[in-house]
């Protein structure tokens, strides 16, 4: 299957799933996760109308960014080391993985120098898995209160990577927890737009379940680009 065919299949699936649960398909943004995939693959996706990409490694994203038309928008979805905050502040239209105040402050400092504002999501460790990054759910509100004092950062919503399960009904509970947490934080007016906050959840295996539970951003790699090449 070509990348264009895969994108087409996923869009059909997004439309069907959204309509079946009374949601507007246009309220769901597809991020094509291009980590470890080539610039040629990204260009192939762009030729098929896909303009949002997700990358996990800052250095890899920096190299790609400079070879790809500005019409492409990159979301950062990996772990940001604070010493890479400068590149992160420059390169991305959204950083989905802010999980600590130190990182938010480092981003803000570089954004001030760049005279740029940045949309971010708070990464929540919704399964409270000690091996995963993300702020514990009970600390998300406190982190947002601090972040709201930073002039260049716009907190748009929440992102999560739930504990892996091959049973999407188990994963559904985590998606629902993230959605409920988002509603609670919006009620406290902690996002930039509390009437429409983002929920980034769902990957190749479970994006339909995520849409049913309210995802506004889904991050899909394998189902678009195929298996990821091994790191050389
Ligand atoms: C790699 C990755 C994805 C995409 O996963 P697939 O299973 O290939 O769709 C989504 N989100 C994050 C954070 C990732 O690291």
TrEMBL record:
The Gene Ontology terms for molecular function here are: pyridoxal phosphate binding
By sequence similarity, the record places it as follows:
Belongs to the pyridoxal phosphate-binding protein YggS/PROSC family.
Q: Which Gene3D superfamilies match?
A: Alanine racemase
> What UniProt keywords are attached to this protein's entry?
Pyridoxal phosphate
Q: Summarize the protein's role.
A: Pyridoxal 5'-phosphate (PLP)-binding protein, which is involved in PLP homeostasis.
Q: Which residues carry this modification: N6-(pyridoxal phosphate)lysine?
A: 35
Q: Which parts of the sequence belong to the Alanine racemase N-terminal domain?
A: 22-229
| One Pfam family cited in the UniProt record for this chain | Ala_racemase_N
Protein name per UniProt: Pyridoxal phosphate homeostasis protein
Q: What PANTHER family does this protein's entry cite?
A: PROLINE SYNTHETASE CO-TRANSCRIBED BACTERIAL HOMOLOG PROTEIN (PTHR10146), PYRIDOXAL PHOSPHATE HOMEOSTASIS PROTEIN (PTHR10146:SF14)
Is Transferase found in the keyword set? no
Cofactor(s) the protein requires to work: pyridoxal 5'-phosphate
Q: InterPro entries, per this entry? A: Ala_racemase_N, PLP-binding_barrel, PyrdxlP_homeostasis
């Amino acid at each position: 299957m070509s990348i264009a065919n895969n994108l087409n299949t996923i869009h059909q699936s997004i439309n069907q799933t959204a309509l079946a649960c009374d949601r507007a398909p246009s309220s769901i943004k597809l991020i094509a996760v291009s980590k470890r995939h080539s610039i040629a693959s990204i260009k192939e996706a762009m030729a098929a109308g896909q303009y949002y990409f997700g990358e996990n490694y800052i250095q890899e994203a920096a190299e790609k960014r400079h070879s790809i038309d500005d019409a492409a928008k990159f979301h950062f979805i990996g772990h940001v080391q604070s010493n890479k905050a400068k590149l992160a502040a420059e390169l991305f239209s959204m950083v989905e993985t802010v999980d600590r105040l130190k990182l938010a402050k480092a981003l803000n400092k570089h954004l001030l120098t760049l005279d740029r504002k940045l949309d971010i999501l708070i990464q929540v460790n919704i399964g409270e898995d000690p091996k995963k990054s993300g702020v514990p759910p009970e600390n998300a509100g406190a982190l947002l209160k601090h972040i709201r004092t930073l002039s260049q950062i716009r907190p748009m919503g929440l992102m999560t990577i739930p504990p892996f399960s091959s049973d999407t009904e188990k994963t559904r509970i985590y998606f629902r927890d993230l959605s409920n947490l988002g509603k609670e934080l919006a009620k406290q007016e902690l996002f930039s737009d509390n009437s429409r906050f983002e929920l980034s959840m769902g990957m190749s295996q479970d994006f339909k379940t995520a849409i049913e539970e309210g995802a506004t951003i889904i991050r899909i790699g394998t189902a678009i680009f195929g298996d990821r090449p091994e790191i050389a």
